[in-house]
Amino acid sequence: MAVLAQLAKPGIVFGNLIAAAGGFLLAARGVVDPVRFAAAMAGTSLVVASGCVFNNVIDRDIDALMARTRTRALVTGAATPGLARVWGALLGVAGFAVLALGVNAWAVGFAAMGWLVYVGLYSLWLKRRSVAAIWVGSLAGAAPPVIGYVAAAGRPDFGAALLFLIYALWQIPHSDAIAIFRLKDFAAAGLPVSPLARGMAAAKRHIAATVFAFTLAALALTLFGYTGYAYFAVAAVAGGYWFAIALRGRAAESDAQWARQVFVCSIFTIMALGVMMSVDFSRIARAAG
Q1: Is the distance from CB of 235 to CB of 218 less than 8 angstroms?
Q2: What angle do CA 240, 244, 247 make, to 5 degrees?
Q3: Average pLDDT over residues 142-147
Q4: How many CB atoms lie within 10 A of CB 229?
Q5: What is the dihedral of CA 148, 152, 154, 155, to 10 degrees?
Q6: If we measure between CA atoms, which residue out of 268, 270, 151, 276 comes closest to residue 226?
Q7: Cα distance between residue 9 and residue 152, in whole Å
Q8: d(Cα 195, Cα 255) in Å, to the nearest integer?
Q9: pLDDT mean over 146-174
Q10: For 269-286, how does the pLDDT look when each residue is reduced to its tens digit (9 = 90+)?
Q11: Rounded CA gap, 21 and 27, in Å?
């Protein structure tokens, strides 16, 4: 069981679960259907876990080349690709069934989009071929909060679009930072991440620009009436601090140390926004959206 859990990447599943919960509670605006909430969270978690398992299968050759991934089950032989495929398929079928029976078609649709983008477009195709893979992968990472949102709202609206934009933009500097402090791993695997494909200076500019864009998108939730001013204040402070750290990259003595700071700040920033949008929602935003 421990091997099966490892294949599903529980840390990634948990992070996406928090994002989905934030989207649901933002759209629910204080009126939460506990059964639908449970179904949305369970279904999202299972679909995300399925994608992670299939990603393990696809990446097992390059995982063997990187220090941080060479102990994964499919690299060490603790699990076989056949077992992983069956496990991933079971998780996916269960997840989509829960969303279909317990939530709505919109949730199923966005979950399918995220799964197909992550497993098909990102893992199978672009990850090894193009620096643009990070942008495609970000679309999959932005699906869980939207699944949560449409589960509560019943349909997508402008608030769902803003959430999608916020979480997609967040993925970019977060992932670029990982690529910088794990640069040797990505070089060993021959992956065309930004600092390798375009150079460190360009990667640093990329991080600063996308953190700035993310902060503007995050603030837009309040500007368009979906969240209150407490959320706005937290988003402004957290986003502004993250942007300040991003700007330090130009004069950083250690690129790896600076990138770790960017990475850690990205986690705290998105967690803070997830909490605040859950509790500081606007009760009139649904009509406005």
Answers
A1: yes
A2: 135
A3: 98
A4: 10
A5: -40
A6: 276
A7: 26
A8: 11
A9: 97
A10: 999 999 999 999 876 544
A11: 10
Dihedral of the alpha carbons of 252, 256, 258, 263, in degrees to the nearest 10: 160
Q: Which residue has the tokens 């992070």?
A: 15
The stretch 211-235 carries a mean pLDDT of 97
Per-residue model confidence as pLDDT tens digits over 53-78: 999 999 999 999 999 899 999 999 99
Q: pLDDT tens-digit profile of 231-269?
A: 999 999 999 999 999 999 988 999 999 999 999 999 999
Burial 33-67 (b: 16+ CB within 10 A, else e): eeebbebbbbbbbbbbbbbbbbbbbbbbebbebbe
Question: The pTM is what?
Answer: 0.94
* Calpha distance 246→242 (Å, rounded): 6
Count, residues in the chain: 289
DSSP secondary structure, 212-251, as one string: HHHHHHHHHHHHTTSB-HHHHHHHHHHHHHHHHHHHGGGG
For residue 129, give the amino acid letter.
R
